[in-house]
Amino acid sequence: MLPQKLQRKLEERKQNMSLRTLPMYKQLVDFSSNDYLGFSKNALIFNATHKYLVANNILQNGATGSRLLSGNHNLYGELEDKLSVFHQSKAAIVYNSGYDANIGFFSCVPQRGDLVFYDEFIHASIRDGIAMSNAKGYKFKHNNIADLENLVERHSATIKDNKAAVYVVTESVFSMDGDSPNLKEMGLFCKKHKLFFVVDEAHAVGVFGDYGEGLVQEHNLVDLVFARIITFGKAIGCHGAAILGSTDLKTFLINFSRSFIYTTALAPHSVATILQSYYFLDSKDGKMQQQLLQNAVQFFKNEVDQHGLKEHFIPSDSAIQCCLLPGNANIKAVALELQENGFNVKAILSPTVPKGQERLRFCLHAYNKPKEIEKVTVLLRKLIDK
């Protein structure tokens, strides 16, 4: 038996139709995974990783310890050098996951007396990291620079009197909406007021930029950003994450970031997979996959428009397209019918998103065929009408 308080919380979830359960794997048309470029199933990357490890006599299953003890194998240096060059950063530091990177950064970089201003729809891992820090966090309205300006003005005395560092945090592509802020305007605002601009690029890397570098580089904003968080579990198709920034920031994180210090490092095979995925991304074949993804996104948006569904969708040019259909019970029923017809489309329920903003989240991929996209949008129209 669980303690009564825990049992009550589970019962509340059941009553609200928001109880989470682990899904069974089914062979459905993929409109739900983060594997935007199809790298997770790419045989060329898989074989290149194996050949690389064998050629370099890296026949090792585990890292054996944290990076500060025995786990800092040579592959880390090669990967972090590659990331620095590819992403035009002074330095890169690899973490075991995006969650580890965000709690590791936000729990240690903002200090007591500092302020963190974050978009109200920021990822849970960033919120958790801020909660673990000694700084105070305040949210501003989604993608609303005017509200951010009001926050800065409201706390101007505290900033001046305490000489507080102020961190402004956003995502370049929001995971539950697929939309983007005006990064240039926000970056210039931060520069003007001497604020530290932090951008999570988890859902932009591999999708935007000439070779998938992300939106910060696509818009030539590298010099306006204090730190970028990138992850490898989305378009890169494997696992892990990295923080991009100055060499001093990297040194600070090595010394004070607890989720980096107190964990076993990634195994050599994991690091080699990231490395080979980046070599593939930075090639003509990688560019081709990126173009196939952009074609799929545009075709999906055209089909949404053609079938009169545009009013239900959040405007987005990313691989994430969201259809708002309020109510947990309602959205679960529609998602279930889509799944029963062979399409893996997930319902995003409250409290993951605000009540009344429940949605279907369509994730598009380089391997989604036009016929699949046409069929799922036609079916969605019928289900909404019903």
UniProtKB/TrEMBL annotation:
Alphabetized InterPro entries for the sequence: Aminotrans_II_pyridoxalP_BS, Aminotransferase_I/II_large, AON_synthase_class-II, PyrdxlP-dep_Trfase, PyrdxlP-dep_Trfase_major, PyrdxlP-dep_Trfase_small
GO molecular function annotation: pyridoxal phosphate binding; transferase activity
Cofactor: pyridoxal 5'-phosphate
GO biological process: biotin biosynthetic process
PROSITE patterns (UniProt xref): AA_TRANSFER_CLASS_2
Pathway participation: Lipid metabolism
Domain Aminotransferase class I/classII large: 27-376
Swiss-Prot/TrEMBL keywords: Pyridoxal phosphate, Transferase
One Pfam family linked to the record: Aminotran_1_2
Family: Belongs to the class-II pyridoxal-phosphate-dependent aminotransferase family. BioF subfamily.
Listed name of the protein: 8-amino-7-oxononanoate synthase
Lineage of the organism: Bacteria, Pseudomonadati, Bacteroidota, Flavobacteriia, Flavobacteriales
